[in-house]
DNA sequence: ACCTGAACACCGTTCAAGT
DNA sequence: ACCTGAACACCGTTCAAGT
């Protein structure tokens, strides 16, 4: 379990909200959580989350590794603080009065945040993370998008969960296509797959492997005409598709609710 | 990028399908990827994925750490193999002819797999993982559930993606509640939160903090009557809610498609 | 109060050597 | 071909010491 303050709140929560008493006496060479978190984020943006080590962060600030421990209880806490700091939405947001539109806006804001700091997706969002400032902000805005809806609180929270999860998975997909996209499977490789992914064992996938459609980095099949299609580049379409599905489902639920009451 | 064979296929894919030529000459004390992966899974089941170190795996098998590198190119490959081996569905599955039912069954199978090996969720599912045997099986079964549906291939894959992501997030939620569930926020802690989560800054969340509803480990408010409710234990309800939403949305889409054609 | 230096117990991975 | 031993370059974190 994560270490907590005497109030039962996780230390990261207390620090993020500025609840921590920082006595400030004696000389201070100017280190602070803010500076530490900012430095860590810069490293993560540049070289990925795995490049964020206590030593690297300290070095980039011109301090020794151990100096960090005065401001941050450990790496875990640093990651939590980074996770929150990165998930910052714009200060002022004007949501559409139409809930469908508003929900789409909200999803889009989340998406933007995750896109700018892709390492956010790697940081485990534990139970306590909902208490962090920017998570609260995100939840608040999500609820704001749905104010007009005749749904229970639990249902609204359910939607926030499902939608944000969908957005996260789409950003993840987008990124995996982008940076691991050098996967190039040769014709020989596809042949090998054809031998193991047989019609008998995998009746529905096998046909797609035959044509090569199913294999990420394979050359497109020499089909007549429509060969030059981006095979999976359209994450955009998948993103919209899932969101549309959820909103459509919600619409039905609301109609059902209003016709009953 | 992950190391690949000369065919362009990731090594983990080749190994998992048994495409790797294993010459087998000279003495063999009986190590193999199968045994290594099995040992690693056992450790992960018992003590979590973080306990899976090359040294721990080797030790549990009675070999030195370095012996593993003859069978596995590195830890990354070991994790990929574990990820696939853990995502095994039952041999024979009888899907309902009703697609809604079938999709629910499929989701439920996924859920069961992730529940039995919760560390699966921590293993990054890269682009190449769709080529692993059990991923192919899962995709095949998902497509099987939707055979009767008048949807494009891309749409079906979209559904597989969205639904499986929803299932994953629900299992994740379930687990985070279970093992980090010792989070107990004292009344003083809730008070501190009330001071920062103000009505002004967070108009929609603030009321929920006032009552204490929003705070995971807080004591339930002394409301009249319905106080003794499990606050978030019903992941089951959230699970169904999201799935229902998606299926309802899909239903509409199908109606639209069939009325157009 | 704040920062440093040395040390500890780990990681994953390499390389040359044994049988 | 298979496994070992020693070594390397890292991790996060501790503790006692300096100013």
UniProtKB/TrEMBL annotation, chains A, B:
Keyword Membrane belongs to the record: no
Gene Ontology molecular functions: DNA-binding transcription factor activity; transcription cis-regulatory region binding
Keyword entries, A-Z: DNA-binding, Transcription, Transcription regulation
Gene3D superfamilies membership: Homeodomain-like (1.10.10.60), Tetracycline Repressor, domain 2 (1.10.357.10)
InterPro entries, A to Z: Homeodomain-like_sf, HTH-type_TetR-like_transc_reg, HTH_TetR, Repressor_TetR_C, Tet_transcr_reg_TetR-rel_C_sf
GO biological process: one example: negative regulation of DNA-templated transcription
DNA-binding region (UniProt annotation): 53-72
SUPFAM superfamilies per the UniProt record, alphabetical: Homeodomain-like, Tetracyclin repressor-like, C-terminal domain
Record domain HTH tetR-type: where: 30-90
One matching Pfam family: TetR_N
PANTHER family listed in its UniProt record: HTH-TYPE TRANSCRIPTIONAL REGULATOR RUTR (PTHR30055), TRANSCRIPTIONAL REGULATORY PROTEIN (PTHR30055:SF151)
Protein name per Swiss-Prot or TrEMBL: AcrR family transcriptional regulator
Organism of provenance: Nesterenkonia xinjiangensis
Lineage, opening ranks: Bacteria, Bacillati, Actinomycetota, Actinomycetes, Micrococcales
């Amino acid at each position: 379990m994560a270490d907590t303050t005497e109030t039962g709140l996780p230390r990261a929560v207390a620090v993020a909200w500025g609840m921590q008493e920082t006595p400030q006496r004696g000389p201070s060479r100017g280190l602070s959580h803010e500076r530490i978190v900012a430095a860590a984020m810069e490293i993560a943006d540049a070289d990925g989350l795995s490049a964020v080590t206590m030593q690297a962060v300290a070095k980039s600030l011109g301090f020794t590794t151990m100096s960090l421990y005065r401001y941050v209880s450990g790496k875990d806490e640093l990651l939590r603080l980074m996770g929150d700091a990165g998930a910052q939405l714009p200060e002022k947001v004007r949501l559409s009065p139409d809930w469908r539109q508003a929900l789409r806006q909200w999803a889009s804001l989340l998406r933007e945040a995750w896109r700018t700091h892709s390492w956010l997706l790697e940081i485990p969002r534990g139970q306590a993370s909902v208490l962090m400032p920017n998570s609260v902000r995100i939840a608040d805005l999500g609820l704001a998008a749905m104010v007009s809806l005749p749904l229970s609180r639990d249902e609204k929270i359910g939607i926030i969960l499902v939608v944000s999860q969908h957005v996260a998975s789409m950003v993840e997909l987008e990124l995996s296509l982008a940076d691991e996209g050098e996967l190039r499977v040769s014709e020989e490789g596809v042949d090998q797959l054809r031998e193991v992914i047989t019609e008998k064992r995998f009746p529905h996938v096998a046909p797609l492997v035959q044509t090569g459609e199913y294999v990420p980095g394979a050359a497109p099949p020499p089909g007549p005409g429509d060969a030059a299609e981006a095979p999976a580049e359209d994450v955009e379409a998948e993103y919209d598709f899932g969101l549309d599905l959820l909103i459509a489902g919600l619409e039905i639920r609301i109609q059902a609710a209003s016709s009953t009451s």
